[in-house]
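Encode chain A's predicted structure.
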Amino acid sequence: MHKLNSLLHQELRLRIISFLATVERADFNKLLEASSATKGNLSVQISNLQEAGYIEVTKTFKGKYPHTKCMITEKGKKELEEYISSLKKILNI
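Encoded structure for chain A:
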């Protein structure tokens, strides 16, 4: 039986990485909108994906406010493709 990537199998992390796979990069507010997550939960899951090397996070300031941008890495793309492939094999698609 094929094993699913447990990091990507969590719904919010899968939403984040799937969204980032469709865009060049996205800021925190766009990810909030796309994921329907709370700020705190989104922040934690972004950190988890960053620690795994699946996304790159850039933090700057716009005026006095922090501005976080995220983009998927090559490793993240590869892991997402493998996750989808494993899921298809499990489902016999």
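The beta strands are 26-27, 55-62, 65-72.
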